[in-house]
Amino acid sequence: MEKVKTFWEKDGYVLRSACREDAENYYQQNFNPLEPEVSRLTGCKPSFTHDEVVNFFLSCIDDEGRYDFLSVCTAWNWMYSLLIQGLKRHI
């Protein structure tokens, strides 16, 4: 079953479904370089390679049990990710 593509926009902000084409921008805007404070607060390692981030991002997009969204500010051209997992579809 294909995931539903979702898109909301308000006051210059967009919340939309992540897609495979977002992988490179996701890496460039969030991990190149990774902010030291993000690493400290999340407990993750201080840096990730391009391939680590892109491959992980793509595996998330392909996972049928996940719904990954991007929050995009069109005025400032930045993007952050949001995950919703474990949703059950009711028919």
Question: What would you note in describing this structure?
Answer:
The chain has 91 residues and is an alpha+beta fold. 31% of the residues lie in helices and 27% in strands. The protein contains three helices and four strands; from the N terminus they run ββαααββ. A four-stranded antiparallel sheet has the order 1-2-3-4, covered by helices on one side.
Describe this protein with a few key phrases:
alpha+beta; 4 strands; 91 residues; four-stranded antiparallel sheet
Helix content: 25-40%
Portion in strands: 25-35%
Distance N to C terminus: 13 Å
Which strands sit side by side, in order, in the main sheet?
1-2-3-4
Give the strand tally. Answer: 4
Mean pLDDT: 84
Tertiary shape? globular
Topology diagram in text:
Blueprint: E1 7-10, E2 13-17, H1 23-30, H2 36-42, H3 50-62, E3 66-73, E4 78-85
Antiparallel strand pairs: 1-2, 2-3, 3-4
Helix pairs in contact: 1-3
Q: Could you give a short description of this structure?
A:
By secondary structure, the protein is α+β, with helices and mostly antiparallel strands. It contains three helices and four strands.
